[in-house]
Specification:
With about 140 residues, the protein is mainly α. It has two domains: about 5-50; about 60-144. It has five helices and no strands. Helix 4 (about 95-125) runs antiparallel to helix 5. The protein is extended. About 5% of the residues are buried.
Length: about 140
């Protein structure tokens, strides 16, 4: 059964709304495992539904725009998080929890930068053996 792009977008929106409601309710009730299952299940459903779409979902122009948008989003997040990190470090002597928040922001910036660099390096490499080496090296570094 083929699905039109219009119906796919409607179903996608409904799934996102459903995920938001279910995750919010689960977290509010203190159930933190259920949202993981909901996210994984909805990702699988959307994956198989996307394969049934009969029209073009996105083209090269969309991919270029998405790439630029992701770079700008990473830069904006990094700048905002760094500024907030320094503000929280400033107040860590008065409020000890601010130090924890500052370190969390610092590690999230480092993690995001690492993930972005890894994905960029992996996608830019055309040789499959080098790609496998990049993946293996990164996994070994993460395990250390």
């Amino acid at each position: 059964m083929k699905v039109s792009l219009k119906n796919f977008k409607r179903i996608h929106l409904l799934v996102v709304i459903g995920i938001s409601l279910a995750v919010a309710r689960s977290v509010f009730q203190g159930q933190y495992i259920i949202p993981i299952g909901i996210m994984m299940g909805s990702a699988v459903v959307l994956y198989f539904l996307k394969k049934r779409v009969s029209e073009v979902i996105y083209d090269e122009r969309d991919l270029i725009i998405a790439g630029k948008a992701s770079v700008y989003a990473i830069q904006a997040y990094s700048w905002i998080a760094v500024i907030m990190m320094f503000v929280f470090f400033y107040y860590k002597d008065q409020y000890p929890v601010c130090g924890i928040i500052a370190f969390t922001l610092a590690f999230s910036i480092c993690g995001l930068s690492f993930i972005h660099s890894f994905i960029s390096l992996y996608l830019s490499e055309k040789n499959p053996l080098v790609r496998k080496g990049i993946l293996t090296t990164t996994l070994m570094l993460l395990l250390l």
